Amino acid sequence: MGHGPQLTAVEQGQVLAWAAENLSVREIGRRLGRNHVTVAAILRDPSAYGSRSKSRPKKLTAKQQRRLYRANETLSCAKLNDQLDLSLQKSTVPRYLRSTNEFKYIKMYKAPKLTKQHMENRDAWATKVVDYGEVKWAAVVFSDEKKWNLDGPDGLKSYRHCIGREQKAVFSRQNGGGSLMVWGGIWADGETVLAFLDGSQNSHDYVYTLSEYLLPSAHLRFGTDFVFQQDNASIHTSVVTKEFLREENIAAVDWPALSQDLNRLKSWGYLGHRMYGGGKQYSSKEELKSSAILLHWNSLDVTYLQKLVSSMKTRSLGVVTPRE
Known about the structure:
It is a single chain. The chain is α/β, with parallel strands linked by helices and 324 residues long. It has three domains: 1-54, Arc Repressor Mutant, subunit A, CATH 1.10.10.60; 62-99; 132-319, Ribonuclease H-like superfamily/Ribonuclease H (Nucleotidyltransferase, domain 5, 2-Layer Sandwich). It has 14 helices and six strands. Strands 1, 2, 3, 4, 5 and 6 form a six-stranded mixed sheet that branches. Helix 10 links the parallel strand 5 and strand 6. Helix 1 runs antiparallel to helix 2, helix 2 (25-32) packs across helix 3 (36-44) and helix 7 crosses helix 14. The longest helix has 20 residues, at 203-222. The model is unreliable at 155-171 (pLDDT under 50). GO terms for molecular function: nucleic acid binding. This is Transposase IS30-like HTH domain-containing protein.
């Protein structure tokens, strides 16, 4: 049973007057038409009645909270409590972590293991290109291959489920229901025509893709004044491919191995979220091609492309090893 609203100033005066006449708490409550607990509250401390009680002092100081948030990334709550010597109850640490909007739980992305030689090669590359200006980066054509599944990547199958409603499902097909492999290139304000690749590719297939898709698009935008970026896949660095690039006078960026983080076209996730958002699936390869891949590729936002390319300066600086 609720205690009801607070007593008015008049009611408080009546309570004190009747209490002075030695009426019981229950009798005073009956006369006022109020709960006796409410009457007892004012009689316990008339001067403090109606004021808000002070909140409990925080268990952690501001400095301790900062230490907790900095150490939060990979340690369990129990280990955080123990290693930081916080002496908190089991439920208190997660409550503090939930109270801040500075963090969210995400999966770690997979990255290749770099050897000392890999890191030295990355450093040498970054040292070479760190002084590239915006104009030079804007003339780099970044390229890559990508496989798209009819059913999309597993990472986009989650959703917020409302308790009590029927659970959503996605169709499951063997090997993702089929897929399409594409090759494409982007630069600061545009993109190549997208190539759809059939089967396993060899060096001659790759040279054909470059001659039919890279050169027409790049020549139309830059003439011959552009730089071509590709990763270190074997068909990209073969004798056949190198000879083709030399004959066509295509300047290619020397790219360090296992450095997908530096290739701006590795950001296929932008397209993936637009294509598969909301658990979208496709019934056929033709639908995937025309209603998703080509539709979104041909409508890439120039502002987004410019941000990708302009980030290269910062990325190269992040790779360079500081010299003493």
